[in-house]
Design a protein that fits this description.
By secondary structure, the chain is an alpha/beta fold. The chain has helices spanning about 30-35, 55-65, 70-75, 80-90, 105-120, 135-145, 155-160, 170-175, 205-210, 215-240, 245-260, 270-285, 310-315, 320-335, 380-385, 385-390, 405-420, 440-450, 480-485; strands at about 15-20, 40-45, 95-100, 125-130, 150, 285-290, 350, 355, 400, 470, 475, 485-490. The protein is built from 19 helices and 12 strands.
Length: about 500
């Protein structure tokens, strides 16, 4: 087994800037507000008044990152608060850690902040009211192994506010500040809503839209329809050889719909347009993608888009434990439980692109047991209903998550690095017993996370005796992305139907 460590940047002593606010200047809160933005790679820590213990300061760091003040306690992570704080700082690409009212901190707590800056590579800014003691600068220099910069309060605005006029004699100050390299964390605004659509099947969908929609609305719908159909047809040309394999083709089709067509849809109507286009393109290639909306209850089109949305990913970022946030995001995206998450390796994760390179094969007998007394992780009867989930996670392709989930992957990857994980080590491990499968612990953790964030418990995580999670405890519920949307693929003819050219461009209703 290869034990090359995950690529880590070379160690450099952290930059420590002591910002003096001798007269406790009133505009200080305004100056801090200008730089308080995680998207720009800066975070402001406001220590709890009167607290001098290291645990409280660690919770203050997590609170500055958007966590609930009691998140670490509720998730039983108080003893690892500093490590999780460092992981979230690295995941968010925080380049500047600003500490307000640093003069109230105990010297040992200042040392804790310096060590945190060392682990994360961030610059440490200490906002000091009054004159700092002479020995403080020497003590910080001894900890950081570099000269501590002592600046006045206006330097804060000069470095971080592009609107400030920079004097000529301080032209190098702004260049000394770290560039704005923060990760986009806030959810992106939704696009303009799509028009209400007729409930016609894919064979007559465009004709029904032409009859019921105004001209400009139909132009938009038809343009999206033909664009998705062309993409699906191009995909079919490269995956036609998989049609005869059946389940493997269905798994690749689920990945296409989940990551590129239905999953990223803006709303239910947008997803319905894309579904009808996908159905039409597959039908012309000899594959019938059947949708059963009656089994989904009222407003079935609302079930078509991806489960992991930008707002949900933003809510997951308020969790303290990185493994729970990342596992919940991955489970919501794939629409199945974490049974096979242990097959993912640290080297497979690319948080910058929010992608995961999945393995090309997963064997049940190679999985770690959930109980050391058991030889195999799952009975054969359970392996049957997990077959689709195993195929979808073992395609050997790139799995694309929403961009907002990249921060969650980056934070947990940083947490595994801080634990000393190598590139070929599992991305998810059991919290206390590495020789056991993390599936059971992750399943329970995902359930608790959904309850904490007031999200409905996903059906694929219901217990075996639930009439919704299984057929009244008699038949296990099949897990899979297409299954959750009542989509099934059927092969009509291995050779396909006669090829029909799609229009290369769509100009307007008169071309229909």
């Amino acid at each position: 087994m290869n034990h090359d460590p995950i690529e880590r940047p070379p160690f450099t002593p952290p930059r420590v800037v002591l910002v003096r606010n001798v007269a406790d200047h009133a505009p200080l809160p305004r100056a801090i507000a200008k730089v308080l933005t995680l998207d720009h790679g800066r975070v402001v820590v406001r220590p709890t008044p009167g607290a001098s213990d290291t645990a409280t300061l660690a919770l203050d760091v997590l609170t500055a990152l958007g966590k609930h003040p009691h998140a670490a306690r509720n998730e039983r992570a108080q003893n690892q608060a500093w490590q999780y704080g460092a992981a979230w700082l690295i995941g968010a690409r925080i380049s500047d850690l600003i500490v307000d009212r640093a003069h109230l901190l105990h010297p040992d707590r200042l040392a804790d902040l310096v060590r945190l800056a060392e682990r994360t590579g961030a610059s440490l800014w200490l906002l000091w009211t009054g004159h700092p003691p002479a020995e403080l600068e020497h003590a910080l220099a001894a900890l950081t192994q570099r000269v501590v910069e002592v600046r006045e309060l206006p330097y804060l605005s000069y470095c971080f506010d592009p609107a400030e006029d920079l004097p000529a004699d301080r032209a190098t100050d702004r260049s000394a500040a770290r560039p704005l390299v923060g990760r986009s964390i806030a959810p992106t605004p939704q696009a303009s809503p799509w028009p209400a659509l007729p409930s016609a099947d894919f064979t007559t969908f465009l004709a029904a839209c032409r009859r019921h929609l105004p001209g400009h609305a139909f132009t938009r719908v038809a343009g999206e329809f033909y664009a998705v159909a062309a993409r699906a047809e191009s995909w079919m040309l490269t995956h036609r050889t998989l049609i005869v394999s059946g389940p493997a083709f269905t798994a690749h089709l689920a990945a296409l719909a989940r990551d590129h067509i239905l999953g990223p849809a803006d709303d239910a109507n947008h997803a319905l347009i894309r579904l009808r286009a996908l159905q039409a393109a597959l039908f012309l290639q000899g594959v019938l993608l059947r949708w059963d909306p009656a089994a989904l209850g009222p407003e079935p089109a609302r079930r078509l888009p991806g489960t992991l949305t930008g707002p949900i990913a933003h809510r997951l970022s308020t969790m303290c434990r990185t493994e729970l946030a990342a596992a919940t995001a991955l489970s919501l995206h794939l629409n199945h439980g974490p049974t096979y998450f242990e097959a993912l390796r640290c080297a497979d994760i690319d948080p910058d692109a929010a992608t995961i390179t999945t393995p090309d094969h997963i064997d049940d007998h190679d999985m770690l047991p959930t109980n050391p007394k058991h030889r195999h992780p799952w009975p054969v009867v359970r392996a049957r209903f997990l077959a689709d989930a195993r195929r979808e996670l073992s395609l050997g392709t790139t799995l694309h998550l929403p961009a907002a989930a990249g921060w969650l992957l980056a934070a947990h990857l940083a947490h595994r690095r801080l634990q000393g994980a190598n590139a070929d080590d599992p991305f998810f491990v059991h919290p206390s017993q590495p020789h056991r499968s993390p599936a059971a612990a992750l399943t329970e953790g995902i359930r608790r996370t959904c309850q904490t964030l007031q999200l409905a418990t996903p059906p694929w995580l219901h217990t075996g005796d639930c009439k919704f999670g299984a057929d009244r405890g008699l038949v296990h519920r099949t897990q899979g992305w297409l299954t959750e949307r009542c989509l099934t693929a059927h092969l009509l003819d291995p050779t396909g139907l006669p090829h029909v050219e799609h229009p290369s461009s769509y100009q307007g209703p008169e071309d229909y």
